[in-house]
Specification:
The complex is a heterodimer of chains A (about 180) and B (about 675).
Chain A: H1 3-14, H2 18-29, H3 32-51, H4 59-85, H5 88-92, H6 94-102, H7 110-115, H8 120-130, H9 135-142, H10 146-163, H11 168-175
Helix pairs in contact in A: 1-3, 2-3, 2-4, 3-4, 8-10, 9-10
Chain B: H1 2-6, H2 11-18, H3 24-36, H4 38-58, H5 66-88, H6 99-136, H7 139-142, E1 145-157, E2 161-172, E3 177-184, E4 190-198, E5 201-206, E6 214-215, H8 236-248, H9 257-265, E7 270-278, E8 284-294, E9 297-306, E10 312-321, E11 324-337, H10 388-404, E12 413-418, E13 422-429, H11 432-441, H12 443-448, E14 451-457, H13 458-468, H14 471-490, H15 495-505, H16 519-551, H17 559-587, H18 607-630, H19 641-669, H20 673-679
Parallel strand pairs in B: 13-14
Antiparallel strand pairs in B: 1-2, 1-11, 2-3, 3-4, 4-5, 5-6, 7-8, 8-9, 9-10, 10-11, 12-13
The chains are: A mainly alpha (about 180), B alpha+beta (about 675).
Chain lengths: ~180, ~675
């Protein structure tokens, strides 16, 4: 792929999607600066891959996987570092620190507040699905089965629908329906 | 069909359906159900809206400030440009995060490749360097050379011992002439020497070998490799012995450090390492280390060479077992090619002084009057003037050179000054062999120009005298000496009767050593032995006296000269004591006990006074001995035989202790080896 094509592709990937992947990276590493670095690196890497002639079927999925992997690595490195440098004072303020770590979102962001209703897994599944990944591919990344991905995704949407003021009664009625997919077969 | 209408779809199924994740048959069923079920269709629609709403919310760019968004895009574009730039210059882009994996993998692969290449090249490089080094010392084998090596032999475990020395090699490969001399630095004596003055004449000397210089034939020991040095054991004595064997087995060749090292390297199981170190004054030095393990024994041989010329500088051999460790270092001090014409034959001839010293006792006669001796000078005519101190220093150097070859013991060789321009050595020696050796020993100095050497044999001197003087004069002097000798032997020694009587009474006394049981013969042997021992003692005393008279007055000699002087004095004192001991052993059983005499307790005397007193005492003793055993007319007053004998024995004892006192004084007065080293 030549330089122009690669740039155009990266541009299209970024358009309407950059914010989502940035939010995902932010969710993963908890710091906006680090998240931006992660995304930038992933996009540059994607650019390099495209320029070196590799065919990438789903560039968004490719980038999101790279971000996820790097975030996991950085998080492991940071844990290692914190383990070595944590002081007694930090232990005393443990509650405050953990609270702060669990709420990395700005207070005013409505979507962030909404996403707080979801578990980390559910949120992650949403992001990965947004990158147009198949259930099987998402399951591979998270180490779970495709049907589990299906369940997590449905549950996440249900939660968001409930939170966004949909008809609770109807939802609750549907929630009570025993789900046995095999019964339909 | 009925069932599919009755049963509603779950959220998961609806979601999977719209996501296209359901298998074909299930998807068909769901589609059929949705076609008839309003509720499920409404839920699906709702779910799709929800998903769309989430997706739209997550992708909302208003999350970031527009300026910030622009900045991000700019950064991304810049990174892409940078990538393109590096791609153009063929430098792989450094990727901060994920790319690191690829970069690391590539780096690992490269390092592996580089390591393989370096290892392969390193191996060949080591051998190339060694080959160059061997080439650099080729001159040793092909050219006439003078090689000097410093030798350090040490044991570090279990004892801590060290020996230093110097190996000096002269080699003339065309004529097959060779000489090796290993001087001990502490004692200043030869430890080992090899000479090959001619193709068919080879000699060897070791300080341990009793008779001194022995004809050397192909050695029986088979030490050919440095690796075999530890064959006789890992301790300093055995190691040195084996090293001597190695030296003797080198086929009359100079020591080629690199070639011997290469011989060791070529063995199995030797690992070779190359280091680059900086030597003295920042010189580049290459160090090759070869190590070989066999059981508990580790052999390590290190070769250091000059980084530019590849000339070998040092060879260090360290042999180690868990409880023993010895080390031998050969440090190349000098390698110089010598024009074959300059090499003197005497360099390759064995030093006579190394043999057991012959009992040559010749009282120094005055030099026969004759023509001006022809000078044996190799250098150009020398005209410079020396100061008093310089002359003394040089004179002592020459004395020491003569001393090393035993020419100070009664040989009528004199060291005299020639004004302020130099030193002359003149004298007569008994045979041509000694004459050549002395000339060779002094050749270093005579080639420097300040020394003239005229050493001739008695025959040479006589022939030159006879050529000029009337025949009868020479005959007369010879006849006179012969007469004296006859007179000496003709008169009967006064002690003979006493001795015969003694041996008759004590037949067991001399039975062990005497060849005959006849008392009169025993008495004669006894007398002869007493006289020869006394003469030997007197010769040592003469040498001492000469040193005392020549150098006793100097108080400001250079430290090095003082050390030479001290070495000579101590040598003579010890030899004298040995002779006195032998004399005492001989006389003590025969002589009646005598009262002990007062010893010399005047502690304020200088060493030279003490030496002179010692000399006079020994001279008196010698006279007494001659009176007793050789029948010369008595100089001293008449005394009974037994009294004289008893006195002699007690004098011997006293003189023996006197030599010890003088030695202590000399040790005190003169600097030690360390002082010389410090001074230099």
């Amino acid at each position: 792929m030549n330089e122009e094509e690669a740039r155009a592709l990266i541009g299209s990937v970024c358009d309407g999607w950059y914010t989502a992947i940035l939010r995902y990276a932010w969710r993963l590493c908890g710091s906006m600066e680090m998240a931006e670095d992660l995304v930038q690196d992933a996009l540059l890497q994607l650019y390099a891959e495209l320029r070196s002639g590799h065919f990438i079927e789903n560039p968004r999925a490719w980038a999101v996987v790279v971000v996820r992997r790097q975030a996991a690595k950085q998080s492991a490195a940071r844990r290692q570092q914190v383990r070595h440098t944590v002081s007694l004072d930090a232990l005393e303020n443990f509650a405050a620190l953990t609270t702060a770590a669990e709420s990395p979102y700005p207070e005013g962001d409505a979507l962030s507040e909404l996403l707080r209703l979801l578990t980390k897994r559910e949120e992650e599944v949403i992001y990965l699905r947004m990158a147009a990944m198949k259930y099987r591919e998402i399951g591979e990344q998270l180490g779970i089965s495709a049907s589990a991905v299906n369940t997590l995704l449905a549950r996440a949407l249900r939660k968001l629908r409930a939170a966004s003021g949909a008809d609770r009664n109807e939802n609750s009625k549907h929630e009570n329906v025993p789900i046995h997919p095999k019964t339909l077969q | 069909m009925f069932l599919s209408i009755q049963k509603h779809c779950s959220d998961e199924r609806l979601l999977a359906y719209v996501d296209g994740e359901l298998p074909g048959r299930t998807a068909d069923k769901t589609a059929r159900h949705l076609a008839v079920c309003w509720q499920c269709r409404a839920r699906l629609d709702e779910m799709e809206h929800q998903a769309y709403a989430v997706a739209r919310a997550l992708s909302d760019d208003s999350f970031l400030h527009p300026l910030h968004m622009a900045e991000i895009k700019e950064r991304l574009t810049a990174a892409q440009r940078e990538y393109e730039r590096k791609l153009a210059s063929k430098i792989p882009v450094r990727l901060r995060v994920s790319a690191g994996w690829w970069a690391a993998a590539a780096a690992c692969a490269c390092m592996g490749l580089v390591a393989a290449v370096v290892f392969w090249r390193g191996q060949t490089q080591k051998h190339e360097i060694l080959a160059k080094s061997e080439q650099a010392e080729q001159v040793l084998i092909t050219q006439p050379v003078h090689q000097t090596l410093h030798v350090e032999l040490s044991e570090t475990r279990p004892r801590s011992l060290k020996r230093n020395g110097k190996i000096e090699i002269w080699s003339e490969p065309k004529q097959n002439h060779f000489a090796l001399r290993w001087w001990d630095a502490q004692a200043g004596s030869l430890r080992q020497a090899l000479w090959r003055p001619q193709d068919d004449r080879q000699y060897a000397y070791r300080y341990t070998s009793a008779p001194g210089v022995i004809p050397h034939y192909a050695s029986l020991s088979k030490v050919v490799s440095l690796a075999d040095l530890s064959q006789q054991g890992v301790e300093i004595e055995a190691f040195e012995r084996q090293f001597m064997n190695w030296l003797e087995n080198r086929q009359w060749k100079p020591i080629t450090l690199a070639q011997d090292f290469a011989g060791f390297v070529s063995q199995d199981g030797v690992e070779l390492n190359l280091e680059r170190i900086s030597g003295a004054e920042g010189a580049r030095v290459l160090r090759l280390t070869a190590r070989r393990r066999a059981g508990t024994l580790t052999r390590e041989i290190v070769l250091e060479m000059d980084g530019t010329s590849y000339r070998p500088l040092l060879l260090r051999m360290a042999f180690e077992t868990p409880d023993r460790a010895v080390e031998l270092s050969l440090i190349s001090e000098r390698v110089e090619t010598v024009p074959a014409a300059v090499l003197r034959a005497s360099v390759f001839t064995p030093e006579v002084g190394l043999t057991a010293p012959p009992a040559r006792v010749v009282k120094a006669p005055p030099l026969p009057p004759g023509p001006t001796p022809s000078l044996v000078t190799a250098g150009a005519a020398f005209t410079a003037a020396f100061t008093e101190a310089e002359l003394s220093e040089k004179q002592i150097q020459v004395e020491y050179a003569l001393h090393r070859f035993g020419a100070c013991l009664g040989e009528p060789v004199q060291v005299t000054r020639q004004g302020v321009s130099g030193i002359a050595v003149t004298g007569l020696v008994a045979d041509t062999e000694l004459r050549d050796v002395l000339r060779a020993a002094l050749s270093n100095y005579s080639s420097a120009g300040w020394l003239t050497v005229d050493i001739r044999t008695v025959d040479e001197a006589l022939s030159s005298v006879l050529a000029q003087q009337p025949r009868e004069s020479a005959d007369g002097s010879a006849g006179k000496e012969a007469v004296t000798a006859n007179t000496m032997m003709a008169s009967k020694p006064p002690v003979e009767d006493f001795l015969v009587e003694y041996f008759r009474e004590h037949p067991e006394t001399q039975a062990a050593s005497a060849s005959s049981a006849d008392p009169s013969k025993q008495a004669a042997q006894f007398a002869g032995r007493a006289v020869s021992l006394s003469q030997a003692a007197l010769a040592e005393a003469w040498a001492l006296r000469r040193l005392a008279q020549s150098y006793g007055g100097f108080s400001d000699l250079p430290v090095r000269s003082q050390w030479f002087l001290k070495a000579m004095i101590i040598d003579h004192l010890r030899a004298l004591r040995e002779q006195l001991d032998r004399q005492f052993e001989l006389l003590a059983p025969v002589a009646p006990p005598a009262q002990a005499q007062d010893s010399d307790d005047d502690s304020n005397r200088h060493w030279e006074d003490r030496v002179l007193r010692l000399f006079r005492a020994i001279e008196n003793l010698h006279d007494a001995t001659l009176e007793l055993f050789a029948g010369t007319p008595p100089k001293t007053g008449a005394a009974s035989l037994s009294q004289t004998l008893a006195q002699s024995a007690s004098t011997l004892k006293r003189l023996r202790s006197a030599t010890q006192v003088v030695e202590a004084v000399v040790q005190d007065r003169f600097p030690g080896r360390q002082d010389v080293a410090v001074h230099e």
